[in-house]
Design brief:
The complex is a heterotrimer of chains A (103), B (146) and C (122). Chain A is mainly α. Chain A is flat, with a radius of gyration of 24 Å. The relative contact order of chain A is 0.05. The model of chain A has no long low-confidence stretch (mean pLDDT 88). Chain B is an all-alpha fold. Helix content of chain B is 67%, strand content 0%. Chain C has a single domain, classed as Helix Hairpins, CATH 1.10.287.3510. The radius of gyration of chain C is 21 Å and the shape is elongated. The termini of chain C are far apart. Classes of the chains: A mainly alpha (103), B mainly alpha (146), C mainly alpha (122). At the A-C interface, helix 1, helix 2, helix 3 and helix 4 of A face helix 1 and helix 3 of C.
Chain lengths: 103, 146, 122
C-alpha cells in the first residue's frame, strides 16, 4: 500500500511543476503584480504603497508602514491570534486531569 | 529533564549573553522605522533572551529574571495598548485606527502617524514577548528539578 | 530557453520542498514526524511568496534618499513580505498548540504512534 502514497505524491509534484511554468519570470518588473494598474483598471496596491509611504507617514521602512498603518486591522487580528494561542496552551496543560474523569 | 547546572561554560556564556540579546531586541523594536525590524521581530528576540536563561539555568533561577506569573498580564497589556490606540482615535473624532486624530501634543500630520505606528509596535512587541515565554513555560516548565 | 529556466528554477525547488513536507504528513506513522512535515510545508509556502516578490536591479523596501521612490522599479514589492510576517507568527502559534495537544495525548494514552493510538481509543 505504500506505493499508492508515492504515486499520489509524484502526480501532485508533476501537476505543481507544470502549473509553475505558467507563472511569469521571477524578478520581472512587468509582471501583473508589479505593474502600475491592475488588469481591471484600478491602481495596483504595491505600487501605491511604494509611491506614498514616505509622504504619508515620514517613515523610511515601507513594510512597517504597510503592516501598522495601511493594514493595521489585520495586525490587530494577528495579535489576537497569538494571544489566543498562548491562552490555549495554558488552559490545556495546567489543569490536573485523571485518566477516566472528565472535568 | 537533566539540567546543566554542573557545566560552567554554558552557565557563564548564557548569563553573559542574555542582556545583550535583550538590548538588541529592544533596538529592533524602536528602529523598525529606519531599518528592517519592528514589533514582531523585536518581541521574538526579547523572548529568546528569556528562554536562553530558562534552558541553561533551570526554571527556578530564571524566575529572578522574568517571573512566569507576569507573562499573561503583560500579554493582555500589549493587546490592550494596540486596541486602546485604535479606540482613542475613534473617541477623538476619526475612524478606528486612524492615527491622524490621536491626542498627542505638538505633532501634526505625517509625524503623528509615525508616532502612532511606534506605539502600536511597542504593544505588539510586548504581547509577542510575553506569549512566547508563556508557551515555553507551559510546555516545559515544571519545577520538579531545581 | 535559458531565461525561462533562470526565471523558474527557484519555483521548482520550492515546490519540491512542499512535496517533501506533504510526504512527511501523509506517509509517516509517528505524530511528531507529521508535525515536522507540517512545519516544512509552511516554510516552503513562506519561501515561495517571498521569493516571488523580487525584481531585477532593485533594492530592499527601505526608502533611501538617493534612490527616488517615484519609479516603482527601484524597490521590490513590499506586500508579500508583510503578509508573510503574519503567516510566520500564525505558524508559531499553531505549532505551540499542536505540541500541547501531543503532550495531552501522550499523558492519556501513553503512545504517539498512529495505529496504536486508534486501537487504544476504541
Amino acid at each position: 500500500m505504500k506505493w499508492i502514497n508515492f504515486l499520489l505524491l509524484a502526480v501532485f509534484l508533476a501537476l505543481m511543476l507544470y502549473a509553475a511554468t505558467g507563472l511569469s519570470n521571477r524578478g520581472d518588473a512587468s509582471a501583473p503584480m508589479n505593474r502600475e494598474f491592475s488588469p481591471a483598471g484600478t491602481p495596483n496596491a504595491a505600487n501605491f504603497y511604494i509611491h506614498n509611504a514616505y509622504k504619508d507617514a515620514k517613515t523610511p521602512n515601507i513594510v512597517t508602514v504597510v503592516l501598522a498603518d495601511y493594514r493595521g486591522y489585520d495586525t490587530l487580528g494577528e495579535v489576537a491570534v497569538i494571544f489566543t494561542a498562548g491562552l490555549i496552551c495554558y488552559l490545556i496543560l495546567c489543569k490536573p486531569r485523571k485518566n477516566n474523569e472528565t472535568p | 529533564m537533566r539540567l546543566l547546572n554542573d557545566d560552567p561554560i554554558t552557565l557563564l556564556v548564557s548569563r553573559f549573553l542574555s542582556p545583550f540579546i535583550m538590548l538588541f531586541g529592544l533596538y529592533m523594536i524602536f528602529h523598525g522605522h529606519y531599518s528592517p525590524g519592528g514589533g514582531f521581530q523585536g518581541g521574538t528576540m526579547l523572548a529568546a533572551s528569556f528562554i536562553l536563561m530558562r534552558l541553561t539555568s533551570g526554571i527556578t533561577i530564571a524566575q529572578l529574571q522574568f517571573n512566569s506569573a507576569l507573562a499573561a498580564p503583560l500579554g493582555a497589556l500589549g493587546v490592550l495598548i494596540y486596541f486602546g490606540t485604535g479606540f482613542a482615535a475613534m473617541v477623538f473624532g476619526g475612524n478606528f485606527l486612524d492615527y491622524k486624530f490621536l491626542p498627542l501634543a505638538g505633532l501634526t500630520g505625517a509625524e503623528l502617524r509615525a508616532m502612532g505606528i511606534l506605539i502600536i509596535e511597542v504593544g505588539v512587541g510586548l504581547a509577542v514577548m510575553a506569549i512566547l515565554t508563556s508557551i515555553y513555560d507551559n510546555l516545559l516548565g515544571d519545577p520538579d528539578d531545581a | 530557453m535559458l531565461d525561462f529556466f533562470l526565471g523558474h528554477y527557484a519555483y521548482w525547488f520550492i515546490l519540491a520542498l512542499l512535496t517533501i513536507g506533504l510526504y512527511g504528513m501523509i506517509a509517516k506513522k509517528n505524530l511528531v514526524k507529521k508535525l515536522v512535515g507540517m512545519t516544512i510545508l509552511q516554510s516552503s509556502i513562506i519561501l515561495f511568496w517571498v521569493s516571488s516578490s523580487s525584481k531585477w536591479n532593485a533594492t530592499v523596501p527601505v526608502i533611501d534618499p538617493n534612490i527616488p521612490d517615484a519609479v516603482a522599479a527601484n524597490y521590490i514589492n513590499p506586500l508579500p513580505h508583510t503578509l508573510m510576517l503574519t503567516a510566520i507568527v500564525v505558524g508559531v502559534a499553531t505549532l505551540g498548540v499542536a505540541i500541547a495537544l501531543l503532550i495531552i495525548i501522550y499523558r492519556d494514552y501513553q503512545t504517539l504512534d498512529e495505529n496504536v493510538l486508534i486501537d487504544r481509543m476504541k
